[in-house]
Amino acid sequence: ALGVSMDQVALLNGLDEGIHAVSFAFLQRAEDGSRREAVIVLPAFDMYAACAEVASARIVEVMPRPDLSFPLGELLGAVTPATRVVFLASPNNPTGLAIPRADIVRVAEALPAGAVLLLDEAYVDFARESCLDLVEAHPNLVIGRTFAKAQGLAAVRAGCLAGHAETIAKVRPFLPPYSVN
Question: Residue 119 forms beta bridges with which residues?
Answer without folding.
Answer: 88, 143
